[in-house]
Amino acid sequence: MLIGSFVVALAYYGYRYPFQYNVTGYGNVYKNTPAVLSAGKYALHLGLLGAMIALLAAGGRRLVLSRSGLWLFVTAGIVGVMSFVNGGYAPSLAVPFIFSLLCAGLVSIVVRTVPSSAAALWRVGGGLAQGFVLVSAVANVIQMFLYATQGRLPAHGYPGIVIRFGGYWDDPNQSAMFSAIVVIVLASLARNRNRRPSRIIVICGVFNVFVSVSYSGYVALAIGLFVVYAWGRRAPRGRRNRRIPWPLLVGSVAVVAVTLLPIDFGPVQRAVHGKSDSAKLRLSIVYKLEGNSFTTLDVPDPVADVRTTVSTMVRGDGRLASETSVVRLVLMAGILPLITLIIWMAIALRGAIRATRPWGLAVAMAFIGASFFVPFLVIYPCGLFFFSGVEIAAALRPDIDEPSLRPPRVPELLEASP
CA-CA distance, 87 to 81, in Å (whole number)? Predict the structure, then answer.
């Protein structure tokens, strides 16, 4: 049932591109998603996870709630109450976030109640994630072909400025983030464990990030790879196995092609200019999106004076929106849920990063860093994957699961030998 919930999160947004549905009030390319279709994902997830909890209880299992899982439920409760009190944009923005927290809390109960399930979920989830990157790449190719031959715009296509392709979800930012995470994990395993990753998956992942024209995706990939190559340890190789890294060869060929071939960079320059304006406004908190343009809200500046700043920090401001995860959370419900979420991170991330060496730190830093440009923490499905993934990783048992993640050292092998 947990795997089924994961598959639902991956597959659900597949209706967007064929039926031309998009987030309500966002952009003017697609129609608003019907409420029933939008609510369907919540019913499926909570139904599957609730049934899983009920089966465990009916089977005589003593349900276990971890400390980190408790803080997820506490944060969901605070955000729910405060966003309802604030009104404005807050309730619609808060629902996906509250939903992700509740689902991750239920996942935490399952993996803590049945600890052996964490490793199985981790393996199956990794395979599904790589398969989804491949599916997204195929979806991007189809979208690019239809745009070139029929002028069919993707959800985030802005003629004359930039055409962004969002893979299977038709969402450039989330598609880029998901693909970047998979590439970071594979790069880390290749560097630290000397495992040969699937080059097809890596190429598809980088391709998805590139065609998304997502600054947040670029930031996530850059941060993650920097951590992998700055703090990771290279697995020893013999002289015969040393070879020039293929990304270096591809990069060199690209530089030569750009230098020698007559390429018109006009579309690229327009895209960079348009995305630069978008990135600047995403770091602002006094705006809303109307059609394809950002506009300033006619409301008081929440940081104009001490009184308004304190009021915003205590109870939020439902009239405002932001594309930065931290700011959006404060606007929805004040600073209190931000504090409880930080407590959750302090508890859960430490165990999760330790259990997922060497790539856990790189993934966490990439996801959190990119969340300053796109509110990945509070949107579906990336928020759901992040919170649930951390809870599953934190539940991995060192005595059983960690040896499969960390190869034994030579002294350990000598001690184990007869």
Answer: 10
Q: By C-alpha distance, which of 81, 1, 11 is closest to 46?
A: 1
Output Rg (C-alpha) for the chain, integer angstroms.
Answer: 22
Query: Contact 10/132 with Cβ under 8 angstroms?
Result: yes
Measured CA to CA, the distance from residue 165 to residue 163 in angstroms comes to: 7
∠180-186-187 over CA atoms, to 5°?
85
CA distance 143 to 216: 21
- Strands 162-163, 157-158: pairing is antiparallel
Write phi, then psi, for 294 (nearest 5 degrees): -85, 140
Q: Are strands 31-32 and 157-158 parallel, antiparallel or unpaired?
A: unpaired
- Both tokens of 316, joined, read 């939020």
Cα gap 268→193, rounded to integer Å = 38
Phi, psi angles (nearest 5°) of residue 30: -110, 175
Per-residue pLDDT of the chain (418 residues; tens, 9 = 90+): 889 999 999 999 999 999 988 765 555 568 888 888 888 998 999 899 989 999 999 988 899 999 999 999 999 999 988 877 776 555 667 888 999 999 999 999 999 999 888 889 988 999 999 999 999 999 999 999 999 999 898 988 777 777 889 999 999 999 999 999 999 999 888 887 777 778 899 999 999 999 998 889 999 999 998 888 887 665 555 544 444 455 555 555 555 555 455 544 455 455 555 555 555 555 555 555 444 444 555 555 666 667 777 877 888 777 777 778 888 888 888 899 999 999 999 999 998 998 888 889 999 999 999 998 888 998 999 999 999 999 999 998 654 333 333 433 444 434 444 4
Report strand pairing: 162-163 vs 31-32. Answer: unpaired
Write the CB contacts of 139 (distance below 8 Å, at least 6 apart in sequence): 17, 167, 168, 170
H helix or E strand, kind and range, residue 22: strand 21-22
In three-state secondary structure terms, 280 is helix
In the numeric block, the tokens 């993640």 are attached to 405
Is the pTM higher than 0.85?
A: no
